[in-house]
Design goal:
single chain, about 280 residues, mainly alpha, Serine Threonine Protein Phosphatase 5, Tetratricopeptide repeat, two-stranded antiparallel sheet, 4 strands, about 5% strand, rod-shaped
Amino acid sequence: MAWTCSNCAESIDDQFDSCWNCGTIHEGASVAAFPSGDNAVHETGGSGELDTQRDAEGGWPPPPIALTRRRILAFIAISASVVAIILMIALLREQPFDELVRQAAAKNNSGDYAGAIKDFTSAIERADRLEPGTGQTILRYHNLVSLHAARGLAYYWSGDYAKAIADFSTSIGPPSNAIDLGPLPDDIPATYMLRGNPGAAVPAPSFLKKLHFWRGRAYLKAGDVEQAITDFDKAIAMDQDFASAWFERGVAHHRLGHGDEADRDRERAIQLKPALRRRPYD
């Protein structure tokens, strides 16, 4: 049910005793202090000045719930930024050197040569940061020689013989792509030899023969048979019982049509290692 205001003709619900538009009560009397709808303000006891201030400032401030929502959104945004920074730091943190090398070797052994090459390259870059000089010279040299040799094998098995040759040459040392060691300490270990001058170190013979052997194989695969024979000669000179070097040199002689030399090397290889008799001789 509703009643009609006698002053403004507004329809008012029965539950209200006065008109919400003009303040006239049900019996017809007017409430003088009641602001009309045209002049009402948002603050109890205020005046039209507040409306003017509100319009000039572009509207009333948002209610408290809106302020809380903005704070929550700002907190979420800041938290997300902090998490992103932490994740970025974790990603940029360098993997431990030994772990990186083991990972590269595992990839190489599993046939993931591209992954191995990538990891060995990262390890080489980190090893090269060591300053040449007493205390770090041998560590830097050992790491670079070993890592270039390992990456050379990965290149070899991936079929990139030119890069394999380059890495093996770097490990072998002068005069091809020598590793700049800087000044060497006087007490250089006996496992390393000096070639020519104090800054030109080369691996010990037990390792150097293998480098010449693998570079010889890479030259053979690349078609440079003469250079392959030269490397096999050096490997055999360091170890007269290096059966695989005898065998591979025999293969190289065979490709050049050197029948007598090929037969001699093959017989010597089989004498040292009978299992080589089953290996294809091409």
